[in-house]
Write a structure and sequence with these properties.
heterodimer; A: mainly beta; Methanol Dehydrogenase, Chain A; 5-stranded mixed β-sheet; 2 helices; globular; disordered N terminus; B: Cytochrome Bc1 Complex, Chain D, domain 2; 3 domains; 5-stranded antiparallel β-sheet; two-stranded antiparallel sheet; 12 helices; elongated
Chain lengths: 549, 278
C-alpha cells in the first residue's frame, strides 16, 4: 500500500493545481489508469467495469451525500447560458428537439463534457455553469441518442446523427474539423461515443436498412481514416460468408457497431459487440448463424484486423443486438487467474469468454423469463428455438425486442466478484406479417405486441459461475435507469423505477441512500474535485451533481 | 436496432404508436430517400414502363429482388446514394457483368427515367428499413383447436372469467381474431362495465402502530408508497425495509403469471375457442 499524505495537506496541495489545470487536456495514457479521480472516457476506463477506485463515498458515508448543483440544458442554436457555437452541413431547419442525456460525461480538470444528438456542452463541474455549447446543424437522420464524447489532449470528438466525426477544441468549443464516418443516403445514423486509444479515435455507427456494419479508426490530429473493419462478409473468401445464403445477403446483413467497446492494452485488442442481423425478423439470410452479427468481436487497434469473435445470439430473429460494452475482468476462474470478457446480452443470456483467445467459458440465462432457446449450440451460444421466431399465428416471447437489457451499461465490483445489470422480463407476441420468401427488410415484416412483464430487477451475477447471486425487485416501473456504477466504497448506483437515484450495497443489493431526481436517463458517474467525491447523474435535460462534505 | 423514441409498438389496444413525427416538410424527413423532391409524374410513368421491360424480370415488380438473383433495389446502397441515375447508369451499361448483372441497352435518358421511377418507389419505404408493403401478407392467424381451447379455458381461466358473463360476446366486440388474441392474453378490455374496478391495483399499509391504510395504489418504490384513500385524498407513507407492512393486490397479476405458463399452442387454441363466443 502506498503511503498516504495527510488529507488536509493533500487538499491544500491539490486545489491550486487543479485550478491551474482547468481545461488543460488529457494525455491518452491517462485513460490507461484505473478509474479514480477523473472520468476521461465513455466507461470511465477501458475495462468497461464502471468501477471507480474512490472510497470517500462508502456504505456508511453515502447517506451524507449533498446536492451540489443541478443544471438544465437547452438543445439547439438558441441554447441558454453560454454562447452557442454553430456548425454542421444542414440547413438549420431540422427541429433541435428536447435534450435528453443518455451520454456519459467526461470529467477532466474540473470540466464536464457531455452531449445529446447534435449538441455538446462544457460545464463547470464545480457549479454547473455552462462554459460553451456547440450545436451541429444536421442534414436529417435518426436522432435517437448520443452516448458521449472522447478526448485526446485538448481536443474533443463527437459523432453526429448524420454521421460526422466532429473535433472540437475543449477550451473554446470551436470546431477543428469534421469528417464523414458513414453515408447518410444509405441511412446510417451515428450514436456512439468515440473511444480514444493512443493515436486512434475509434468510431462505430448504426443503420436499420440492411447496410453493412463497420467500425472505423481516425487520426486524432487530422481526422484521416486509419482503418475500417466491416462486421459482415463483404467479398468472396471473407470469413463467415458460409453462414449466409449469399454474398449479397451478407453485405446487407447489419451487425452495427453502436455502443463503445472495451480495450485490453496487453493484447492491444478493442473488444466490442455487434447488432442484429437484417432483415431482423424474417427469412432472407439462409439458415446459418449470420456472422458476425450479435457477436463479441476483438480487433487489433492498430490494424482493425479481427483476432477472435464469439457469437452471443446465433441467427437472431428478434432484433436482440449484442452491442453492449463488454466488461474486462482479471479474475480467478476454475482456480486459475484468467483474463476475461463478460457480457450480459439483450437476448437474456450472460457470457464469459477468455479475452485473449475468445475461448467460450460460460453461458447462463439471466433473464428470469427468457424462453426462446432450446439449449446451447456447438460453440456454446444459445440455440434458437424456431418456434419462437415471429410466426403468423403469434409466438409468446420473452424478452421483448427491447431486450432484457439494451444499451444501458452494466458494472462490475471486484470486491464482491459480481457483475451487475438491469434485467427486464417483458413479454411480447411476435407476429410474422410478411410471408415473402425473399424476406423483408430492416425491422419490417413483423408486428410486436406487448403483453406484460415478469418483472424488472437489478441483478447481480457471479462471473465465475454465471449464477445469479441476488435480484433486487423494482416494485413498480422499470429499474436500472441509464446504466450502473460501482465504487471501491462497495456501493452500486442505479436509477430505480420510481424516479430515484439509489445507492445499493454491492453484496446484497439493499438500498443505502436515495434521492428523488426524476427518472435517471444515463449511467451514474463519480470523480474527485477539491478532495471531495462527486456523484453525477442525468434526468433528461438536467444534470444533478451530488458531493460528500 | 437501437432502442428509443422511434420504436413502433403495437399496443394491446391495437393502436399503432408511431412516436416519430412525420415531418410536414419533406426536407425535414429523416433520410435523403424521403427528403428528395417528388419526380416528374410523366418521367416516373415512363420509367415504370422501362423498368417493367428491362429490369423487372430479375429485380421484381416491387424492386425487392427476384428469383433469377437480381438483388433488392429498395435497400441497394447504389440506389440509395444515387441522385439522378448517375450511379445506376454505369451498372446498366455493364460495370457489374462479372457479378452477373448484364449490360442493358438503354439510353442515358431512359436510365434517368428508370432511376426516377426507382427513387419514387424507394421514397415510399416505411420506417426502420421496412419495405413499402408486405410482399405476401398472411390471411388469418387462426390455426388453433377450439375444443382444446375450451378445455384450457375451463382449467386456467374460468376461475375469474365466464363466456356467459364478463366475456359474453367477446368475439363480436373483437371481430379481428388477432386483436382478440392480443387483448385476452394481455388481460385487457374483457370486462363489461366494471372493467376499471377489476383492473385497479390496491394496497394495504399496516403501520407499526396498527393503523391501516387501504385503497388504490398510486405509486410505490423502495422508499415511499402512496395510497388513494376512500375519500379521494392521497397519503404517502415512508418505507424502511419491511416496515410498515405493505401488501399490494394486483388483479392482473394472474394474467402476468400465466405468460410464463402458456405454450403458443395453448394461446392459439384459446383464441380459436374465443372467436366462437359471439
Amino acid at each position: 500500500m502506498l503511503p498516504t499524505l495527510p488529507v488536509l495537506f493533500a487538499a491544500w496541495l491539490a486545489l491550486p493545481a487543479l485550478l491551474l489545470a482547468q481545461g488543460g487536456g488529457l494525455e491518452p495514457s491517462d485513460i490507461l489508469k484505473p478509474l479514480k479521480d477523473t472520468w476521461p472516457t465513455y466507461n470511465g476506463d477501458y475495462t468497461g467495469r464502471r468501477y471507480s477506485a474512490l472510497t470517500q463515498i462508502d456504505q456508511s458515508t453515502v447517506k451524507n451525500l449533498t446536492l451540489a448543483w443541478f443544471s438544465k440544458v437547452t438543445a439547439g442554436p438558441g441554447g441558454r447560458g453560454g454562447r452557442v457555437i454553430v456548425g454542421g452541413e444542414g440547413s438549420g431547419d431540422f427541429p433541435p428537439g428536447t435534450a435528453s442525456f443518455k451520454a456519459s460525461a467526461l470529467e477532466v480538470d474540473g470540466t464536464l463534457y457531455i452531449s445529446t444528438p447534435d449538441n455538446a456542452w462544457a460545464i463547470d463541474a464545480r457549479d454547473g455553469r455552462e462554459l460553451w455549447h456547440y450545436f451541429w446543424k444536421t442534414r436529417g437522420s435518426t436522432h435517437i441518442a448520443n452516448r458521449g464524447l472522447a478526448m485526446w489532449h485538448s481536443y474533443l470528438y463527437m459523432e453526429t446523427p448524420d454521421n460526422y466525426l466532429v473535433s472540437l477544441d475543449s477550451k473554446t468549443g470551436k470546431e477543428r474539423w469534421h469528417k464523414e464516418i458513414a453515408d447518410l443516403a444509405q441511412q446510417y445514423f451515428s450514436t456512439p461515443a468515440p473511444v480514444v486509444i493512443g493515436n486512434h479515435v475509434i468510431a462505430g455507427t448504426g443503420n436499420d436498412i440492411d447496410a453493412p456494419g463497420f467500425l472505423s479508426s481516425f487520426d486524432p490530429e487530422t481526422g484521416d481514416l486509419q482503418w475500417k473493419h466491416y462486421t459482415v462478409p463483404m467479398k468472396p473468401g471473407d470469413a463467415g460468408l458460409d453462414t449466409w445464403s449469399s454474398l449479397d445477403r451478407a453485405q446487407h446483413g447489419g451487425a452495427q457497431t453502436w455502443i463503445p467497446g472495451a480495450y485490453d492494452p496487453e493484447t492491444n485488442l478493442y473488444i466490442f459487440g455487434t447488432g442484429n442481423p437484417t432483415p431482423a425478423y424474417t427469412v432472407g439470410r439462409g439458415e446459418g448463424d449470420n456472422l458476425f452479427t450479435c457477436s463479441l468481436i476483438a480487433v487489433n487497434v492498430d490494424t482493425g484486423k479481427m483476432a477472435w469473435y464469439f457469437q452471443t445470439s446465433p441467427h437472431d430473429m428478434h432484433d436482440w443486438d449484442s452491442a453492449q460494452t463488454p466488461v474486462l475482468v482479471d479474475g480467478m476462474f476454475n482456480g486459475k487467474p484468467r483474463k476475461l470478457a463478460l457480457t450480459a446480452s439483450r437476448n437474456g443470456y450472460f457470457f464469459v469468454v477468455d479475452r485473449v483467445t475468445g475461448e467460450h467459458l460460460i453461458t447462463s440465462k439471466y433473464g428470469k423469463d427468457t424462453n426462446w432457446s432450446t439449449g446451447l449450440n456447438k460453440f456454446g451460444g444459445p440455440a434458437r428455438n424456431p418456434e419462437k421466431d415471429p410466426t403468423v399465428t403469434g409466438s409468446i416471447v420473452s424478452p421483448t425486442a427491447g431486450g432484457t437489457i439494451n444499451w444501458e451499461p452494466p458494472a462490475f465490483s471486484p470486491e464482491a466478484g459480481l457483475f451487475y445489470t438491469a434485467e427486464g422480463n417483458g413479454y411480447s407476441i411476435f407476429y410474422l406479417t410478411d410471408l415473402d420468401p425473399r424476406g423483408s427488410m430492416g425491422l419490417g415484416g413483423k408486428e410486436e405486441v406487448s403483453i406484460g412483464s415478469g418483472g424488472s430487477f437489478l441483478t447481480a451475477i457471479d462471473y465465475q459461475t454465471g449464477k445469479i447471486v441476488w435480484r433486487h425487485a423494482y416494485p413498480q416501473g422499470s429499474g436500472g435507469g441509464g446504466g450502473l456504477l460501482t465504487t471501491a466504497g462497495k456501493v452500486l448506483f442505479a436509477g430505480d423505477g420510481g424516479g430515484n437515484i439509489v445507492a445499493h450495497d454491492v453484496f446484497t443489493g439493499n438500498p443505502l441512500w436515495h434521492a428523488k431526481t426524476g427518472n435517471v436517463t444515463n449511467a451514474p458517474q463519480t470523480y474527485m474535485l477539491d478532495d471531495h467525491q462527486y456523484l453525477l447523474v442525468a434526468t433528461g435535460d438536467t444534470l444533478w451533481s451530488f458531493l460528500l462534505y | 436496432m437501437q432502442a428509443g423514441w422511434h420504436i413502433v409498438v403495437l399496443t394491446v389496444t391495437g393502436v399503432v404508436i408511431l412516436a416519430a413525427q412525420t415531418p410536414a416538410n419533406r426536407a425535414l424527413a429523416t433520410f435523403p430517400a424521403q427528403q428528395r423532391a417528388p419526380g416528374d409524374p410523366a418521367l416516373i410513368e415512363r420509367g415504370k414502363t422501362l423498368y417493367s421491360i428491362s429490369c423487372q424480370g430479375c429485380h421484381g415488380a416491387d424492386l425487392r429482388g427476384g428469383d433469377p438473383g437480381g438483388p433488392n433495389l429498395l435497400r441497394s446502397q447504389v440506389v440509395l446514394s444515387d441522385q439522378d441515375g448517375e450511379l445506376i447508369l454505369p451498372i446498366i451499361q455493364g460495370a457489374r457483368q462479372s457479378t452477373g448483372m448484364p449490360a442493358v441497352s438503354m439510353t442515358a435518358a431512359d436510365v434517368k427515367a428508370t432511376a426516377t421511377f426507382i427513387h419514387s418507389v424507394v421514397a415510399t419505404a416505411k420506417g426502420q428499413g421496412a419495405p413499402p408493403d408486405a410482399g405476401i401478407a398472411p390471411t388469418t392467424i387462426l390455426v388453433g383447436d377450439a375444443t382444446e381451447g375450451q378445455r384450457y379455458f375451463a382449467a386456467k381461466c374460468s376461475n375469474c372469467h365466464s363466456v356467459t358473463g364478463d366475456l359474453q360476446g367477446i368475439a363480436t366486440r373483437y371481430p379481428d381474431p388477432k386483436l382478440l388474441q392480443n387483448r385476452w392474453v394481455a388481460g385487457g378490455g374483457g370486462g363489461r362495465g366494471a372493467t376499471s374496478d377489476r383492473r385497479t391495483v390496491t394496497v394495504k399499509v399496516t403501520k407499526p402502530s396498527g393503523e391501516v391504510l387501504e385503497g388504490r395504489l398510486v405509486r410505490i418504490d423502495d422508499f415511499l408508497v402512496t395510497v388513494a384513500n376512500p375519500d379521494g385524498s392521497l397519503t404517502t407513507v415512508r418505507r424502511d425495509g419491511d416496515k410498515p407492512k405493505v401488501e399490494v393486490t394486483d388483479p392482473m397479476q394472474a394474467h402476468r403469471d400465466l405468460l410464463a405458463v402458456y405454450t403458443d399452442k395453448n394461446m392459439h387454441d384459446v383464441t380459436a375457442y374465443l372467436v366462437t363466443v359471439k
